[in-house]
Amino acid sequence: MKKSLFKTIAVSGFAALAMSVHADQGSSGKGMDMGGMKTGCIKNTENMKGMNMDCMRNNKPAKAASMSDGEVKDVDKANKRITLKHGPIENMHMGPMTMAFSVKDSALLSKVKAGDKVKFRVQSGNNGVATVTSLTVQK
Fold it and tell me: I need a surface site. Which of 56, 97, 111, 130 has the fewest CB within 10 A?
């Protein structure tokens, strides 16, 4: 009787620990922190991979996109992606958050490393995906 009670308690404890670890994964690591994102036009924010940014698109000409401030969190040269913790991106109607972006030119990634403070420009590509088109390291 004591062994089965001990096993039941142990299994319950491990299950609670596993659920806690799983629930915490959304708030750490390389995932997205969408605290400042305006999601009124997005129905499902659970899986943002391949997110269509049409509802956030600005209809102004490309030259109207201003530079935004950010910090490099991760550089993925193999997939032409960069993860940035950034302030507001006015032309995309985005609030501050941490997000992975595609880059227009992979040469941009050779200039930066995790921890760098940067100024960058994001525009909506032909496929509606937010894409970094300009990136400069701040001293």
Answer: 111
* Closest to 27 measured CA to CA, from 16, 15, 35, 19: 35
Q: How far, in Å, CA of 115 to CA of 32, rounded?
A: 17
Q: Does the residue 48 lie in any domain?
A: no
Q: Could you tell me the residue range of the domain that residue 74 belongs to?
A: 54-137
Does 72 score more than 80 pLDDT? Answer: yes
For residue 126, what is the domain's CATH number? Answer: 2.40.50.320
The residues pairing with 137 across neighbouring beta strands, listed in sequence order, are 118
pLDDT, tens only, 58-70: 444 444 568 999 9
**Numbers of helices and strands, H then E, in the chain:** 1, 5
Evaluate if pTM is beyond 0.70: no
